[in-house]
Amino acid sequence: MTTKKTTNSQAAASTEDDPGHLVVFDTTLRDGEQSPGISLDAAEKLEIAEQLARVGVDYVEAGFPVASQGDFEAVQAIAREVGNEPGAPAICGLSRTHIADVDRCWEALRDAARARIHVFISTSPQHMEHMLKMTQAQVLAETRAGVARAREHTGDVEFSPQDATRTPLDFMLEVLVTAVEAGATTLNIPDTVGYGIPWDFGALIQHIRRQVPGDYVLSTHCHNDLGLATANTLAGVQAGARQVEVCVNGLGERAGNAALEEVVMALRIRPDQFPGITTTVRTEELARVSRLVARLTGYPVQYNKAVVGRNAFAHESGIHQHGVLADRSTYEIIDAASVGQVGRQIVLGKHSGRHAFADTLEKMGIHVQGDALNQAFARFKELADRKVEITEADIEAIVAEELGHDLIEGFKLEALEVSGGTVGMPRAGVVLSRAGDKIEATSEGNGMIDAACSAIRTATGVQTRLIGFNVSSVTGGVDALGDVVVQLEAEGLKVSGRGVSTDVVEASTRAYLAAVNRFVRIKARNERRQVEIGP
Ligand code: KIV
Ligand code: ZN
């Protein structure tokens, strides 16, 4: 396969300069955000995009601009702010083949230094018959028109035949040839429903390379329904794909997409299997982006998640511990520091001032100002009174929680009082504030956490059902921050929230309130939503 240099295509340009360069296309903000219950606003998306730029991915797929005004604004903000920083990733937006969608997508992207339009249409019989209600001839015509329109805007156009792995091969080849003729510079092969098996998916990639003439970069987009997304992606790379579409923590529709951290580390640890393949990812940033995404989406990372899970470098059995103490290579193939999995100690304590705190945040790449900074500083002081060692992860956790409050202008927890034990009914009283008003409520419950959540329901008037509750600690030790994630259902919406504190009842109350705030915000946003579509 050869690649063509286009005026606006980093993918084509970088693979031409270095045929071993693998383009890392992150779609956390688009496909990842399609995970049930995740809804990020523009500020949260910007924060993740900034961290993805620090990670060094080549592309950030920032959203689906025609889907809603919120998505449009988020893509535009990322294109303007992240897409113009020195060494920034190129910014991509998703679009159906409709001309109006393509134009709207370009409108959102146009201010980025480098922008890509990603045009898709379904090609499998299941999708064509039940969703599109189009014939093959119509799909071919749509492909040609959509891609050609995108090419009028930018030299960097990606095309995806959705549900490719269930599409008859001859038809898919015809669609891909049409897309290349119309100007597509990247051909992405989505395993939309996670149907692929590694050797079969690899063979498909190889077949396309051989049968579709032209200058383009071939790309993988693998879903994880059978737990094979990373394996299929790697098989695609071995067969000649030079772009991988991935999400942080493997987020995405249903069982998710191939995980950024898994794909990148597999390539890094096994160069013998991928000779000459390189990425520009700074692996030391992987744990941080994983934590940020987990916090802002409310999707916790499973403990045993490869690379970024908290147990990825933990050893339980005596034999393993003995081996690792003698030499880490006995049971570890990845150096924890190389993926940022070592809690860096912050030299801040209870006597540190606001300046030192703000300076530390800046060094960590966290930009907070005004009220959010004051509140984060107050939380830091409280924490310093209760906890001897403060790590970067602790600071990230409290700042993220305070930022979350600010962004959503929701209810704030001003005070919490609980009583309970083995005798008598557990009780809780909360004082919340919202837009300058104070709201107080008291309640009883099955335990102190239940009583506090019930008091919040009374104070906010939001009736919810608890469907998930998870407690973990941010770091080790008896004074560790408790990190609680709750999932709630309210009016048919599933939302999650996170709270941190050295006190688990307080952390749970904060998490519950964060989820209520998220519900309030999503409800308001849905009411504003203009067009409701999704791939
Ligand atoms: O899974 C999929 O098919 C997609 C496309 C829009 C690329 O996400
Ligand atoms: Zn997808």
Jot down its keywords.
TIM Barrel; Double Stranded RNA Binding Domain; 17 helices; globular; alpha/beta; disordered C terminus; three-stranded antiparallel β-sheet; binds 3-methyl-2-oxobutanoic acid
Q: Can you summarize this structure?
A:
The protein is α/β, with parallel strands linked by helices.
Helix-strand blueprint:
Elements: H1 10-17, E1 23-26, H2 42-55, E2 59-63, H3 69-81, E3 90-95, H4 99-109, E4 115-122, H5 125-132, H6 136-153, E5 157-162, H7 169-182, E6 186-191, H8 198-211, E7 217-222, H9 229-238, E8 243-246, H10 260-269, H11 286-297, H12 318-326, H13 354-363, H14 370-386, H15 392-408, E9 412-419, E10 427-434, E11 437-444, H16 448-460, E12 465-473, E13 482-490, E14 493-501, H17 504-528
Parallel strand pairs: 1-2, 1-8, 2-3, 3-4, 4-5, 5-6, 6-7, 7-8
Antiparallel strand pairs: 9-10, 10-11, 12-13, 13-14
Helix pairs in contact: 2-3, 2-11, 3-4, 4-6, 6-7, 8-9, 9-10, 11-15, 14-15, 15-17, 16-17
This protein binds 3-methyl-2-oxobutanoic acid (KIV) and zinc ion.
The CATH topology of the largest domain is TIM Barrel
So what's the overall shape?
Answer: globular
Low-confidence stretches: 1-13, 529-535
| CATH superfamily descriptor of the largest domain | Aldolase class I
- Count of alpha/pi helices: 17
* Rg computed from alpha carbons, rounded to a whole number of angstroms: 24 Å
Q: Report the β-strand fraction as a percent range.
A: 15-25%
CATH class of the largest domain: Alpha Beta
| Average predicted local confidence, pLDDT | 87
- Class derived from helix and strand content: alpha/beta
Number of beta strands: 14
Number of domains: 3
In this entry the ligands are:
3-methyl-2-oxobutanoic acid, zinc ion
Strand order of the largest sheet: 1-2-3-4-5-6-7-8
How many strands, what sense, and barrel or not for the largest sheet?
Answer: 8 strands, parallel, barrel
